Amino acid sequence: MNLQKWLKGFSFASMYGMFLILVMGALVTKTESGRGCGDDWPLCNGKFVPAYTIDSIIEYSHRFVVGVVGIILLIAFILVWMYSNRKDAKVFVSGAMFFTVLQALLGALAVIWPQSSSVLALHFGFSLMAFAFTLLLSLVYTRFGSGLSGATLSLTAGVRWGVFLITLYSYAVVYLGAFVRHTESSGGCIGWPLCNGSFIPELVGPTRVVFAHRLGAALLFVLLAWLFMAIRSQMRAEENMYQAAKWALILVITQIFSGAFVTLSMGYDSYLVASLLHAVLVSCLFGILCYLSVLAFQAKKGDRQAYGAR
């Protein structure tokens, strides 16, 4: 196995592992297993191998996976910095390492010293950033990282800034969604697309939080529809940026319907599955938007090839 395969292998392993951490983190939140190990960290209720309760197994499994993925990412970090001549890969692996350590520390602090819902929501946000960086790192070693031969990235300033601002805005929408979960506000809006039978409900308590998240998601759809149309007018269909914009639009539509699934499944066995699907889709959407941002940044520099060109 040559060095290039090692780099690619550990990059993809860290990306898949970080994705698993996101899913397991959402499972911990939705099953209210965050206190499954009590106030102990890194031990679980004072033991290396915890008692076999559902809460402790879910929480400790999450911690175990974070530890394993952390080791995989550390190996990828060392390999990239020692043997890769790709500056973009070094930036991405460094960003992934930073946010992985940050989310692990925040998770530990949340166990030892209970945090507010607003702080706990950051935990998912930091995990999402770590996943996005590992996704970008893995794409470096695919055709999406080397670009199309002879492709020209030429975007207007308005579209470039649109990509950056929409990506930032999507992070705010994701944070608000995590805040809904951590404040247990999901029941604030019964029914979909109406909220409690009204187009504009009484904005108090959990209803205000959930309704704000719905409005944020709707606006994100409008912005991504505009972005896709703008990029389509300036890019060929085979361009990576065009394909990324198309998938971003598809994912935000799917995400909206998965949110409806979450609302309509409350009180049923399918609620947990719907919630995890919602987290998976938003993770993929944010990763695609980060990829779009890198492409837009390359266009701003006037590069003749797509992101990651050698």
UniProtKB/TrEMBL annotation:
Principal subcellular localization: membrane
Pfam families, A to Z: COX15-CtaA
Domain of life according to the entry: Bacteria
Location(s) in or outside the cell: Membrane
Transmembrane segments: 12-29, 64-84, 91-113, 119-141, 153-178, 211-232, 244-264, 276-297
Topology of the protein relative to the lipid bilayer: Multi-pass membrane protein
Pathway: Porphyrin-containing compound metabolism
Keywords: Cell membrane, Disulfide bond, Heme biosynthesis, Iron, Membrane, Metal-binding, Oxidoreductase, Transmembrane, Transmembrane helix
PANTHER family named among the record's database cross-references: HEME A SYNTHASE (PTHR35457:SF1)
Name of the protein in its database record: Heme A synthase
Organism listed in the record: Paenibacillus agricola
Phylogenetic lineage: Bacteria, Bacillati, Bacillota, Bacilli, Bacillales
